Structure formats: C-alpha cells, structure tokens
Amino acid sequence: MPAGMEQVIAQMRRAKDQLAEAAVTAMRAKADFDEAYKLYFQLSEGSANPNIRRAASEAQTAAAKAGRYANLLDRAQRHYQAYFARVAPAANFGSPSGVPSGEKLLSDAGRRASRREQFLRQQVQKADDTQDSLSNFESNAKTLVDYFKKLPDPPGATSSNPVKVDPAPTTERVDVDNPITAVAMAAGALAIALKATITNVKKNRERKRRSGNES
Amino acid sequence: MNPELPLYIRTLVRGEHDLNDQIEERLDRDGWDGFPRFLASLFFAAVDRRFGEDALPGEIIRFVAALREDLSHGGPDIDPIGAEALIKSVLDPTTEYDLSQEMIGKIQLATSYKILSEGDLSDAELDEILAEATEFAMQG
Amino acid sequence: MAVDDIKSDLNRARILMMQGKAGFEEAAETGVQGAALALHTVQDSADDDIEKAAAALKAADDEVDRVLSRVNAAAELADAYRDAL
Fold first, then answer.
1. Residue ranges covered by each domain of chain A
2. What is the pLDDT of residues A44-57, one digit of tens each?
3. Between A111, A134, A156, which is nearest B13 by CB?
C-alpha cells in the first residue's frame, strides 16, 4: 500500500463504524416512533378531534424519516466500500474493524449495567411506599427545587448547544494524479478541520431552525 | 410514571423557571407517580457520568463540600458522610450507607441538579440522561 | 374508551416520542462525526462512488431537522388533544 494509504483506510474504518452506529441508533429511535404512532392511531379511531389524527401522521412521518436517515448512511457506506474495493482491494476495507474495541465497549457497558442494577435494587428495597412517606418525599423535593430556583442562574441555564466559533480550515485541494494518498492529512490539521465541519453543520441546523425552514 | 417528571427536571436544570412552576402545578394536580424511582435512576446516570468508575475519593469529598456550600444559603442540610457514601455506591455498589428516605431523596436531587446544571451538557446529552431515568421509572 | 385509559396511552406515547427523540439526537451526533471524518478523508469528487457517498451524507444531514420537527409537532398535537379531553 502506498504511504499514507494506511492512515486513510484507518480513518475511513472509523468513519464507517460511526456511520454504522448512527444508523443502528436511528433505527432504534424509529422503533420508538413507530410504537407511539400505533398508540396515536388507535386513539384517533375513537375520536372526532383532528389533533390526534395529525399527531399520528406526524409520528409516522418521523418514523419514516428516521428510517430514511439510517438508509442514507448505509448507502454512503456502500459507496465508500465500492470505492475502496476498486482503488485498494488489498486493504480489505469491507471487513470489520478490530474486535478488541468492540469487546471492551461491551464489557464496560456490562459492568455499568450491573452496577446500575445493584444500585437501583438497593433503592427499591430501602424505599418506603407509604403515602405519608411519599408526600414527604414530594414536599422535600419541592422545597429544594424552590431553593434552586431562587439562586442566581447556574452555568447550565442555556437551552441550546454552546456554539464555539472556530476559523474555517484551509483544506488543501486534492492532487488529481493520486487522489487517495494526497488526501491523507496530518492528524492535527484533521482534528481542527473536523471540529470546524461539525460546528458548521450544527450552526447551519440552528440557523435553519430559527428561520423556520423546516419541512 | 408521570411523563412530566423528566420535563420538570429539564426545565429546572435549564433555568426555565416559569415553565417549571407550571409543570410543578400539574404534578401536584396529577400526582408525582414514579418520582422516587425516577430520581434514583437520574442520580445514578448523573453520578456515573460525572465521576466514572475510576473516580478518586478526594473528588467525591470535594464535590460534596461544594454541594453543601451551594446549599448553605438557606437550603436544607445534607449529611456529608451519607452523601459521599451514596455517591460512592453508584460507582461501587458494595458501599454501605444508612440514611433515611428523606435524606436519600434530598441528596439525590441536590446532587443531580448540581451535576446536570454545571456539566455544560448539550440538549442531546441531557435528554439522553433523562430518557435513561425514565426507562427505569417506567418499569415500576 | 375511558378518559383515564386515553391519558395513560398518551403518557406512554409521549415517553416513547421523547425516548426516540433523545436516541435520534444521539444518532445524529455520531452520524455527523462519521460523515465529517469520511468527507475530509476522501475528497475525490471526480469519482462516481465518492460523489454519491457525499450526496447521501448530505441528504442524511438534511433529514435530521425534519425528523426532530415532526417529533415536536406530534408531541404538541397530542398535548392539544389531551387538553381538550
């Protein structure tokens, strides 16, 4: 493999993993939207109120679009796979990335899940479900919440992502003779470029949201 | 579980006080069903995120000291040893503690509030934590 | 259908929509990172596959806000229905 090619393959493997993860997560969200749609739909059958019917329609569309999002990511992955099969077949781009990181993720998640289960079980055991105790619980909570509301605003009191303004990177144009190797950027420059791209994507979304440009 | 509970916490953390007031009224009216379970799960998620498995004991002690300082302007008393133990029990469930239900609730709410409001969380990150807390409370 | 049952279904649906929203936002976060990395690593726009991949990623990004606005609309409409009960 030409120099720099390994770097490109490694980066694209990581990108592929992220796109795959995003697609899977989006499909899980789609399943939630589908379930909500079924509930709304059943309710709408027994009602003359148009709102519940519209809610069902919106939920169904949300589900469809979440599915479309996942499909588009899959499509991108397939095209990248086809590209690398052509220009660097020896790299075996299509094969799964290293197993250890996956295993580590699983074991970390497994440990956390176990901790969570133990912690919550203890809470349930110690819980007192008598009405008096619950009323006390609620009134204590409200007292504390009132106290927090009277304090000056904490740093978390912003409802949108804090957008950091980074200068846009000057990306070098690709060397047409050797498209793959020419694109392998130094790790530092890539990090800056990525951060700027992601920030710009988010800023664009915010701008579109504010100008009401939604379909 | 009353589905407004996550919204109650969200509006509190984001400083949307008027909305929080309204939601509180509705909770009083409709019932705070599932609140203790929700709060316990919220506490777990917030503490786990803030400290992680390899937190040093000093970090937890410093956090609790800062928390008591936050509450010292007319807020409720928090048992410092109890708070440290409860937080530690998220990271190491063999930790023992002996606290009243009342104190557990206060510690969980105050700790969760401090972590979530100071954590510089994006909307997605905050929603993720609230969704996790919801999931457990709904099983109850 | 009894009003209490309706409210209970609405509650469940709202939680599902919220869970889905949180999950989808998480997907979008990961997705935009993967897309940015891919687009920066291989920029050979003379290649058909790369062009199509880039177009698919752009189209995916466009869908994100559409999903979220639909979720918000569904929740608001269901709330309006609930208030009228």
1. 1-97
2. 998 999 999 999 99
3. A156
